[in-house]
């Protein structure tokens, strides 16, 4: 099985007071541009976390949402002795098809002489970030950890002319042995198990803004690989004995393959160059049953069709605040619905195994289009069941109202994924039954969604059930991290060189799509998933 997800890590995002106040009431510019760019390809924002200028965004294809569970985020300040968030780390953790994964974005102290301080701050981040639950209570307890960001490690001993000469002649291995992070991996127990692909691209810092020229200012910073992406698999020896029987097999069978690791020299709006990578993760076991299975007709051509049936697994805890959202294909995040209906359980339904809800006529969208339904769990603060896309083609004479009831979204700190309860008007989920239809109704909750390659098509691929429930499931990760002050900080405008009329993050994502397509072809096992 194949699947896709995307993690974006930014540092030094504009965090001036006036900008932060604006972001508290509206979506910050970076979150908005990434959602606008990725949503047409079926990517939905799973969660985000921001601490001043450090921002982490996690996206996944919509049909993977029911299998991303236990989503939590954490922040750790290390600036000014732990009182200021200009330095530190933000993380997002979750289980992906039953396997715990943590994404950690860090901005560590700068300057050559602070290598030990960088390690101290990293240790502090790992100690302070604690998560609820029994499977993974801290960062290193996860089956897979991705650690990335502006880690600020420098190249020791060699002078600037030697370093630049090695860069000009593509003799990067000469510099690897004096890279502080590589040196620390050999001596610091804290870094045991962390892996990184070869640094076959030029050092990503420090450049004169607007150019590909290394620092010519009075400070003349020595070039360095400050921007890094590492990963770590949890060793079987760290698993508690009582869980080792299951988990050791799980961990030992987990494999991570890095398809590429590169910088993007074409972007000149920062003194750093963004780096990106695509990974394939292979898991030996899987969770492939959603909490909620939604069933809907192939198309809605009349108001009486606007119903949905659903089933829940026995141990699923429902809430009277649960709701089912109607989303247009290409939606951005869980509150970006067109209409909704409460999924509360009536007393008369306590012994019922299948439930039905009906959308009010005035809430249905005008015209025609492709839509999906998603069941939002208030207890879990996430979408736990989705359908495949279906068509709505209502007669033009039907009175349609309310375009969208979506609440404003803010990625400000932990409010990003918090539920803003749907507005006071309830669509009144009724028991009115529409006329019986001869057209068949089929379940559309994706148990084992397939991969449609990594070519980003305008219409999101439809998930489907694989023939064998025992096939291995993979999850993949793609990270691109433009280290910029704000989306509009390009001195020559919002366009990046070579991408006329396209913003820097949009152009970066477009360039990555070609690498993703190449990576998908390289995946030899059809059971592999790219994330």
| Broad shape | elongated
Can you count the helices?
A: 8
Radius of gyration: 24 Å
Topology, number of strands:
25
Characterize the main sheet: 7 strands, mixed
Report the average pLDDT across residues. 77
Distance between the termini: 11 Å
Task: Please provide a written account of the structure.
The chain contains 8 helices and 25 strands. The chain has 531 residues and is α+β, with helices and mostly antiparallel strands. Strands 1, 2, 3, 10, 11, 22 and 25 form a 7-stranded mixed β-sheet that branches. A 6-stranded mixed β-sheet has the order 4-5-6-7-9-8, covered by helices on one side. A hairpin with a 2-residue loop joins β2 and β3. The chain starts with a strand and ends with a strand.
Topology:
Blueprint: E1 5-10, H1 17-25, H2 29-38, E2 43-51, E3 54-61, E4 68-79, E5 84-96, E6 99-107, H3 115-128, E7 144-150, H4 160-168, H5 173-176, H6 180-187, E8 194-195, E9 227-233, H7 241-252, E10 255-263, E11 275-283, E12 292-297, E13 299-300, E14 307-312, E15 323-328, E16 339-342, E17 355-358, E18 368-377, E19 382-386, E20 390-393, E21 441-443, E22 473-480, E23 495-496, E24 499-503, H8 504-522, E25 529-530
Parallel strand pairs: 1-22, 6-7, 13-20
Antiparallel strand pairs: 1-3, 2-3, 4-5, 5-6, 7-9, 8-9, 10-11, 11-22, 11-25, 12-14, 12-21, 14-17, 15-16, 15-18, 18-19, 18-20, 23-24
Search tags:
seven-stranded mixed beta sheet; alpha+beta; 531 residues; elongated; six-stranded mixed beta sheet
Quick take:
16% of the residues lie in helices and 30% in strands. It has 531 residues and is of the alpha+beta class.
